Hints:
Layout: E1 5-9, H1 12-27, H2 35-42, E2 53-58, E3 61-72, E4 78-87, H3 96-110, E5 115-118, E6 129-130, H4 134-142, E7 146-157, E8 174-178, H5 184-194, H6 199-207, E9 214-219, E10 222-230, H7 244-247, E11 251-259, H8 268-282, E12 287-293, H9 296-300, E13 305-316
Parallel strand pairs: 4-5, 11-12
Antiparallel strand pairs: 1-2, 2-3, 3-4, 5-13, 6-13, 7-12, 7-13, 8-9, 9-10, 10-11
Bound molecules: coenzyme A (COA).
Amino acid sequence: MIKDVVIREYRPEQDVPAVAVLWESTLGATYPVSSRVLYSRIGYRPGVETGDGWVAERSGRVVGFILADHDQTAQGVSYGMVSTILVHPDCQRQGIGTRLYRQVEQRLCAMGCTEVHATAGWFRFWSGVPADLPDAVAFFQRQGFGLETETHDLIAPLDGPGRLPDPVNLPAGFTFGSLQAQDLGALFAFQQMEFAGWVPSMLKILAEGDGANILVLKQDVTVVGSIQTYTPSSKWRGPNVVWERLLGECLGGYGCVGVARAFRGQGLGLALCVGAMHHIARNGGTCCLIDWTNLLEFYKKTGAVDWRCYKRGSKRLVKE
Ligand SMILES: CC(C)(COP(=O)(O)OP(=O)(O)OC[C@H]1O[C@@H](n2cnc3c(N)ncnc32)[C@H](O)[C@@H]1OP(=O)(O)O)[C@@H](O)C(=O)NCCC(=O)NCCS
């Protein structure tokens, strides 16, 4: 009975509590989210514009929700990202998800986006479409997404005897620690030169006042590596700390691990990861999540284990 379903624009100031209830009914058993994670991603945050989100209502009750983001590549190409879509279990397979998705696709096309990705962006929940949600995989495929690649989240428990690897000794002349104000310029130059795609998440961490969670590897005064970490008290709840209801409130995480090209192959990357694990543990973390990676063998050297697999892919958009 799709005719009794009304699709209308999402209005965060009134809809967030109803979407929270919908989330619990739809994904509460598989991917429950805490209020602080949900509200900071779909509620009041910069970047949610009218038309980014849509809700489906049946008899005045919110039974469906979609939220998308959009951005531009460094070359100025606009693209969209579906950060979440939910349809109440009683209302699935009635075309509601398709109607919600079409609203987003039409808007992205009108904005000049040439591509849309399935779950991406800094406000995403998942690193891709979870392989253990086959309904979602089938849905995105039906909408024309080629979910051809896979990516993984790994976890490493940090508490308990022997769980935290011993710190790695750095070669002479190298130092490692929390970002200091005087190193900000050198870090920015390093990121721009070596890992430009990670600059926005670095700026987000800095803007929220969590700069001490950016750990920097230096040779003398030159930044040659960095790693972005999250602790249980991080103000910016980045993608690594989304699943605190599944993995515990003391969840931390790290990502964007990078060593300058000229310094690779000397064990410095592993030293950054182990250093990050110690930083997270010192700040109360008992588990650490490493998101969106295919370097499973590398991270397993730190004691991390594979946690979730995701399907990744996109759909090309053609303006009608
Ligand atoms: C994914 C989801 C939003 C789909 O919503 P929906 O309203 O049921 O989707 P639609 O009715 O528009 O389905 C459109 C097509 O997608 C495919 N599809 C959707 N659900 C499917 C399922 N359970 N099994 C197989 N194919 C499915 C079918 O091709 C379907 O067309 P058909 O019914 O004519 O065969 C819904 O299943 C859901 O809320 N799941 C839980 C939340 C979730 O996983 N969100 C995504 C996280 S990335």
